[in-house]
Amino acid sequence: xxxxxxxxxxxxxxxxxxxxxxxxxxxxxxxxxxxxxxxxxxxxxxxxxxxxxxxxxxxxxxxxxxxxxxxxxxxxxxxxxxxxxxxxxxxxxxxxxxxxxxxxxxxxxxxxxxxxxxxxxxxxxxxxxxxxxxxxxxxxxxxxxxxxxxxxxxxxxxxxxxxxxxxxxxxxxxxxxxxxxxxxxxxxxxxxxxxxxxxxxxxxxxxxxxxxxxxxxxxxxxxxxxxxxxxxxxxxxxxxxxxxxxxxxxxxxxxxxxxxxxxxxxxxxxxxxxxxxxxxxxxxxxxxxxxxxxxxxxxxxxxxxxxxxxxxxxxxxxxxxxxxxxxxxxxxxxxxxxxxxxxxxxxxxxxxxxxxxxxxxxxxxxxxxxxxxxxxxxxxxxxxxxxxxxxxxxxxxxxxxxxxxxxxxxxxxxxxxxxxxxxxxxxxxxxxxxxxxxxxxxxxxxxxxxxxxxxxxxxxxxxxxxx
Length: 467
Description:
Strand order of the largest sheet: 6-8-9-11-10
Helix content: 55-70%
CATH architecture of the largest domain: 2-Layer Sandwich
Oligomer: single chain
CATH superfamily of the largest domain: PAS domain
């Protein structure tokens, strides 16, 4: 995130400096051009005064020598042009002067000067423009114009001077630009630190940790308010979940004693019943009371399962081996064999403190509901760890497997067996919150029965380093 923000801010800083530098560079180039123009215009005016005297007296040797010395000293050719466009005198050979005038053309201000007016000042000379600067000054005024003095000034020196000033400007602009860049880094961190903490806290909440809080003492005021609102929201959600779980747990506990008393009272009515219909109604009442008692126990177990939050690295093989003895004891009581197929060691990110309860729920479902003779617990390592509980019972149809993860759904063949239809749905939610998934499919095929299998997929984890 910091890299993306700097990618936006740093080009903006360069554009800002460039927006200040570009107009200033133009002003400097124009100022340099005007300074050179004023200097050359003064020289042209001096030569115009000398040329007027020379043309009136008919002695032009002094003027020609003065122009030659000027070109030798400054490298700027000077030419005197008659009203008809002929070259009268110059700082060099007549042929070179005529070629120079032909090259620049009479339209470059010479015609205006021969008309007795001073041409418009030149526009800005840019460093990449190699055209010479042409200065034309009339000799005389109005109807007394006897010619024009033309100076053809190269602009290479002007370009170098402009580039030099620009270079110093660019060098000095590095200082504020460096300060701006240096201020951008801590400013970006200051702005993004609350965002990063909010992102980490949101990830923790997504994984089920509702005790996370974000420090609201740093960052811009808007982000501090957002942080406070986030903390308040997490508190509200946590309290709502706590109240929900407390209500289910307390209601289940509170109902157990009255339900037990009701069941006992109904059972005590047996000696006073007369007639077959009364005894059948009595049996139905006892069955309903027992079903309600089992449902309360299941709700309590589901509440404990739903209280699992967060994730942690778990060694799957070791966890299964600590519980397999109890599973086998439960299986023996139902004449069901419990086996395992486990690698030497495999680690996965699993619901914190809840994977054991999840496997207990899946194995318990298989022992109670499968109707088979064998249950197997498998695990496979890799980028995604797969843990499966499979049986060789009657299984479920594809349509029933599509409904089996709905809360309170129970197979038509299991209506008279203890359970609420909550366990598998809660297990699926817990596994998804841990970054995994749960799939239902066929199990251990045996004697024409397809069996039933529940496979949990969890992100792989590395074994913690020894302390």
